[in-house]
Amino acid sequence: MNSLTLRQQEILGFIRVYARDQGYWPSIRDIQRHFGFKSTNAVAGHLIALERKGVLSRVPGQARAYRITGPAGSGVASVDDELEVVNIPVFGNITAGFPEGVESGNAIAQLQIDVESAGLRRGQRSFALRVRGESMIDAGIQDGDTVVLEVRPPRNGDIVAALIDGETTLKRYLKPSGDRPFLKAENTAFPSIHPVNELIIQGVATSVVRRL
Questions:
Q1: Is a pLDDT exceeding 90 seen at residue 190?
Q2: Is residue 136 domain-shared with residue 169, that is, in the same domain?
């Protein structure tokens, strides 16, 4: 394998640090701005070169998903393990307040995120929603955040996206022993919500991202 140029090592180091700190992959424009490239084509060229040299590899079966690897003899001392980044669809907004309808349909954006930092399990279906409202601020989820969710059954105490009596909201799922489950806000200004007819869990929150 050919050794990396100084610029390629710098780009690889930037990607790794950015993904570890932010929890998601930097966009091509993020890389362009950081290094002052005149066009995104220059970034794309470096990424292709890194892939050819074996330090950046695509994740099989996942579009625009990559791993950073540090093969023996690569001369990249800063890359000593794998960082797997995947694309997660963002399906509109969810209320962290009083329940209401949630925007749905096709994804409105893609969130590139590090699997390990996001607490995701490989092979598990995931999606993301943008948060509106302040009912979960005591759990560290603020208005404008993006919450990443896995599609799986909830455990007692999980934060979930839930359809409750026809409206969607983000709350903590609680199931008292011998009683019906309900949704609890993490803000004393908001009441808990008890279902009248139905409570359907759409996803379980695994992490929160402060920007896309």
A1: yes
A2: yes
